[in-house]
Amino acid sequence: MRVRVNDVLIRYEMQGPPGAPVVTFSHSLAAALESWDLQLPPLRDAYRVLRMDTRGHGGSSAPPGPYTMEMLSSDVIGLLDHLDIARTHFVGLSLGGMIGQVLAVGYPERLDRLVLCDTSNRMPSETAPVWEERIRTAETQGMTALARETLERWFSEAFRRDQPQATERIRNMIVRTPVAGYTGCCRAISRFDLSGELSRVKVPTLIMVGEKDEGTPVSAAETIQRQIEGSELFVIPGALHLSNIEGAAHFNRRLLSFLS
Ligand SMILES: O=C(O)CCC(=O)CC(=O)O
């Protein structure tokens, strides 16, 4: 389904019994709602699972950027309003986790529980050249040029070797991401800094991170945990950045116990 929210079309899927609590999933940069496929089966009997493509990704519109984290968060609120959802659990990975933090600060009345995965409360200014380089590569060579290095940051060598079909599916998501959507979100991420405001978050929060995530490492998760009072931290053994896929069994067990 696609609905007009703010000035864009947002693609989403909603599965699960009517009246059940809603769990909203928000994916990483260069992914799409299908990156949560492994979370659907364990949740869909007891929850309404709402998965959406972030602006600039998957089947959502990709207007020219730059985007801001506030814009991306406002798209989530617009979708919830459209679907008449007053409150939701929110699970966000990486970029999705940054959106989740903005929601928890700006719209706490809309959130029941918050799960922040493989994310950070700010992008250090030292990383600015990395984002500029990724933007330049996407604009000059297209998303295919970014696929291999992205997969290497997201999954272990063993996973890429042993799960070629799953790896290929994610690769397709990366290369199909519109360049304008990717670069628009890169700019939102590179300017992201919620470090001064995160201590205001009172929503019950679980933080999960792949043990070997390099882009948003365990230390970044620990920083978030120190700032959000009462939050829990779970490190997913062996996983890199897309811990919900490579570490799905651990991820799902911890997610279910936190939500229930
Ligand atoms: O994945 C994201 O949503 C942003 C952070 C990032 O680019 C991490 C990575 O791909 O290594």
UniProtKB/TrEMBL annotation:
InterPro entries: AB_hydrolase_1, AB_hydrolase_fold, AB_hydrolase_sf, PcaD/CatD
Keywords of the record: Hydrolase
Lineage top rank: taxon: Bacteria
AB hydrolase-1 domain ranges (all copies): 21-248
Any GO molecular function: 3-oxoadipate enol-lactonase activity
EC supergroup of this enzyme: hydrolase
EC number: 3.1.1.24
A GO biological process held by the record: beta-ketoadipate pathway
Name of the protein in its database record: 3-oxoadipate enol-lactonase
